[in-house]
């Protein structure tokens, strides 16, 4: 089974954001493989271990996004593809999905695994776009995946439980962090990853033209901040103060 | 007059409350049409009419209930061809975003997600979107024709305006090609508790709770206050509690009378889902946590001691 896992390099969730002069969010900081994607890589590896095949990581980003791919390779993925091109910088969700789709199409995978959403954007728009562009069904919010021949079955997390969803491959699934605990890369894995292939392609290699961006930013203003209220150290009276606030708010 | 299409989300026959919130905004922006698909669509049409829809296109084919995203995408795309709305509004919910994403790719036009407001401006539409960790708000002009905007739940108040929608049966061919991701079983796990989105008091826990074994402390407090328990994405990701409890950008949006954030630092992913709560109380060991800068009352201390003491005090107050 041929499995593609999409991966993204994101600002370290533990660091703070800064703005560029043009109001875009700075990428010049500590970056890591998106923690959600680590779960996707792990699930891909587990499916490969159970059913055989190959795990290919596909990413879009600047040259240094290779580090994120390398991290996945050190966990055990077989090879990587990086779409990297200055003309793709600042791509919106649709352009990102089109670029990923063009690269993934060349691999003709049986299964595409995406995280439900990225850690930085957190909008979750790319996976359904990608599924549509690849002509695949989407099995989303998977907390469990089973493959039986050409049948893929997931437990899809919902607000009050889960649904069992089935489709035939090729298919795209999105996984939640509940799917699998990502493994640590072993020293051997890290060494092996150094010689694994990361193919680098440009937008023009993929025959991409830029679509009109979804939006034009017309202005950025400070959000209406809630005023900081009272901050107290708990010296034993905090509970009484909370009770007063609850009573004033008429919930007690 | 601009033509606005609202995608009315139905889940097992029930209209999503956020769809009615969208109607309030849509009727400010132009002539409102709605699309309701699957079982319950005709009943929903009556409700949508009361909220300002002039026309509701309906189709009750069971495929809309039983297959993920693709039949709905097909229906909207075919309605788009006929009606050419200027703006298509979706709720920013997990089900609607799957449909909106496919539609965007199908039509080849981009979309704007996570919006908190939409205005008509210069013959087009401008969405307000939280930006830069929520500290800023960007005004984004939608370049797409149609403009496709996904709006966060609870951004607008639903209100009836009176009126009756004309109900039109939408004729759409659903071939086997769109019946692929098949929902074969539905399993309910959540018990009948106060719903998070409707609770007057929400108590949410984050990493500062130390582990899943301590979440019952929050359940006890919620029980005493008649509230519901939520969680930050960090602890949902860590597997402490189910996704259905997540409050935040891609979890639930809540607007209770009182929101108590326990051991939650206050990342944008979380605060965007709760910052319009009337009163926010934060309990955190870190006085510098961002949540402390937005709380009406911030308590610096050990949550594992304060929460049980608070529960006892609430019970005492209620009983006497």
Distance N terminus to C terminus of chain A? 58 Å
Annotation, overall tally of beta strands of chain B: 18
What would CATH call the homologous superfamily of the largest domain in chain B?
A: HUPs
Mean pLDDT score of chain A:
91
What is the alpha-carbon Rg of chain A in Å?
21 Å
CATH topology of the largest domain in chain B: Rossmann fold
Strand content of chain A: 25-35%
- Sequence stretches where pLDDT stays below 50 over 5 or more residues of chain A: none
Shape summary of chain A: globular
Q: In the CATH hierarchy, what is the architecture of chain A at level 2?
A: 3-Layer(aba) Sandwich
Q: What oligomeric state do the depicted chains represent?
A: heterodimer
Mean pLDDT of chain B: 93
Q: Main interface pair?
A: A-B, 87 and 92 residues
Structural domain tally of chain A? 1
For the record, the CATH class of the largest domain in chain B is: Alpha Beta
Order of helices and strands of chain B: EEEHEHEHHEHEEEEEEEEHEHEHEEH
Cα distance spanning the termini of chain B: 60 Å
**CATH homologous superfamily placement of chain A:** HUPs
Beta-strand content of chain B: 25-35%
Rg for CA atoms of chain B = 21 Å
């Amino acid at each position: 089974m041929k499995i593609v896992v999409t991966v993204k390099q994101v600002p370290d969730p533990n660091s703070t954001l800064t703005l560029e002069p043009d109001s875009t969010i700075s990428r010049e900081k500590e970056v890591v493989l998106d923690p959600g994607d680590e779960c996707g890589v792990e699930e891909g590896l587990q499916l490969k271990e159970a059913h055989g095949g190959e795990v290919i990581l596909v990413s879009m980003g600047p040259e240094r996004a290779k580090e994120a791919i390398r991290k996945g390779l050190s966990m055990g993925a077989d090879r990587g593809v990086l779409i990297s091109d200055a003309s793709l910088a600042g791509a919106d969700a649709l352009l990102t999905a089109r670029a990923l789709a063009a690269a993934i199409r060349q691999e003709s995978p049986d299964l595409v695994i995406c995280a439900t959403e990225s850690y930085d954007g957190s909008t979750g728009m790319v996976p359904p776009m990608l599924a549509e562009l690849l002509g695949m069904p989407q099995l989303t919010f998977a907390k469990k995946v089973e493959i039986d021949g050409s049948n893929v079955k997931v437990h899809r997390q919902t607000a009050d439980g889960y649904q069992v969803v089935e489709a035939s491959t090729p298919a795209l699934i999105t996984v939640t962090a509940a799917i699998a605990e990502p493994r640590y890369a072993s020293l051997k894995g890290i060494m092996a990853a150094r010689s694994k292939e990361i193919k680098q392609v440009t937008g023009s290699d993929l025959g991409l033209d830029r679509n009109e961006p979804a939006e034009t930013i017309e202005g950025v203003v400070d959000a209406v901040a809630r005023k900081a209220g009272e901050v107290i150290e708990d010296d034993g009276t905090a509970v009484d103060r909370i009770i007063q606030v609850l009573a004033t708010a008429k919930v007690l | 007059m601009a033509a606005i299409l609202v995608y009315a989300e139905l889940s097992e026959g029930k209209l999503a409350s956020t769809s009615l919130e969208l109607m309030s905004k849509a009727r400010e922006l132009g002539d409102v049409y709605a699309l309701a698909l699957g079982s319950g669509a005709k009943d929903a049409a009556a409700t949508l009419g009361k909220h300002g829809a002039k026309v509701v296109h309906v189709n009750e084919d069971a495929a809309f209930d039983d297959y993920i995203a693709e039949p709905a995408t097909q229906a909207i795309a075919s309605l788009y061809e006929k009606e050419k709305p200027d703006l298509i509004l979706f709720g920013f919910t997990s089900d609607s975003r799957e449909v909106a994403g496919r539609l965007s790719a199908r039509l080849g036009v981009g979309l704007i997600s996570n919006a908190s407001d939409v205005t008509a401006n210069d013959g087009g539409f401008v969405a307000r979107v939280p930006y830069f960790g929520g500290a800023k708000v960007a005004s984004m002009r939608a370049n797409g024709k149609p403009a496709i905007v996904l709006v966060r739940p609870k951004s607008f108040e639903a209100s009836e305006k009176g009126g009756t929608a004309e109900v039109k049966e939408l004729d759409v061919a659903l071939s086997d090609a769109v019946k692929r991701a098949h929902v074969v079983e539905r399993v309910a796990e959540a018990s009948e508790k106060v719903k998070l989105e409707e609770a007057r008091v929400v108590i949410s826990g984050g990493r500062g709770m130390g582990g899943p074994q301590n979440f019952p402390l929050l359940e006890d407090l919620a029980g005493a206050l008649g509230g519901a328990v939520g969680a930050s994405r960090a602890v949902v990701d860590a597997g402490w509690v189910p996704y259905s409890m997540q409050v935040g950008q891609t979890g639930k949006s809540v607007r209770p009378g009182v929101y108590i954030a326990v051991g939650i630092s206050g990342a944008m992913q979380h605060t965007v889902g709760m910052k319009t709560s009337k009163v926010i109380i934060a309990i955190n060991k870190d006085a510098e946590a961002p949540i402390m800068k937005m709380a009406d009352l911030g308590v610096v201390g050990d949550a594992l001691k304060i929460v049980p003491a608070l529960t006892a005090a609430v019970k005492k107050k209620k009983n006497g």
